[in-house]
Amino acid sequence: MGTFAWWRVYCALIFYLPFLIYLDRIGGMTAAALTSPLDVLKTRLQSDFYQTQLRTLHASHPPKHAPAILAIPRAGWYHFTETLQILASIRSNEGFRALFRGLGPNLIGVVPARSINFFCYGNGKRILNEKFNPEGKDNVWPIHLAAAATAGIATGTATNPIWLVKTRLQLDKSHASNDPMRGRQYRNSWDCIKQTVRGEGVRALWKGLSASYLGVTESTLQWMLYEQMKLLLAKREARRLADKTHKNSFMDTLEEWGGKFTAASGAKLFAAAITYPHEVVRTRLRQAPTVANGPGGKPQMKYTSLVQCFKLVWKEEGMAGLYGGMTPHLLRVVPSAGIMFLTYEGVLSLAGTKL
After folding, report:
1. Residue 73 main-chain phi, psi, to 5 deg
2. Which of 46, 96, 277, 320 would staple 325 via disulfide (CB 3.0–4.6 Å)?
3. 151 with 117: CB under 8 angstroms?
4. Contacts of 99 (CB under 8 A, 6+ apart)
5. pLDDT by residue for the chain (355 residues), tens digit each?
């Protein structure tokens, strides 16, 4: 690398990177705030606290019969309109603020989660390449797999208490139990932490971690798909650059960054849809112990382990129970993933570094 290239990297690191990282953090927090209603809805649909209300809504608005060719589009439209109906129901029954419950821990968690994930993946990939791929081959999927798995495990372990608090706050409302006299259980995030530690011990803050580790398959699949699609884009760009008669234009830049956004969003869509059941199990393992009464009237957990939770949900609700809340989840995470990866690629491009 020449002197000018080093100077460009230095200037980017000193002047531009802090600003872009700041923008990325602000963007992540803004996206979390704007999509908070979808996050609240997703969590509630994943939990078994609200299944009675959901069945009542289904009974009052049954889907109409449609020809076979229109069944899938109609089902998609039905789930989309149902999502809007439930959001309106939360607002009318609990007030506008209910749509933003759990936003505090979400805003706190989004920055470290992103930072840990990208840091571990980027550095893990670099270290593994130095060790096992000294030739610098492009398409070494085992390295991508190992780096993504490491990043997912590190992120899940470090941030699990934040997401447990967020989940419990989102599920907390006066009508969540069968007792109409029951008020809100938690006043705020700190009160949720205190009650959880006091009643269940410090280890309770890491409930659902086993499902998070299972969810590493999602982030791993997402990273691998993104790398493969980005490699295709790079080959296309190489062919274009090899053409001596070709002149770069705005459309080339638009195709490059639009392709990366589409690749990131598409990878997230496929990975999230394939591995979604772990999201439902994770939410149910994290929810507060208010289902059954133990000795002395002490609340007990209905879901006690990863395998037991899978079996019980399948037994009581069938396969549909393992996909509750997937529509608002995809509406929230797919565009967010595209923006997040695009921002990160922009930071690396400015610094003269490749992911």
Report:
1. -60, -40
2. 46
3. yes
4. 36, 37, 40, 87, 90, 91
5. 444 444 554 454 445 545 555 656 676 777 788 889 999 999 988 988 776 666 676 666 666 665 666 656 666 676 677 778 888 888 888 888 889 999 999 989 888 888 888 889 888 988 998 888 888 776 677 888 899 899 999 999 999 999 999 999 998 865 444 444 556 788 889 999 999 999 899 999 999 999 999 999 998 899 889 988 988 888 888 888 787 777 777 777 788 888 889 999 999 999 999 999 999 999 999 987 665 555 555 667 889 899 999 999 999 888 888 998 898 899 999 998 888 888 777 766 766 555 5
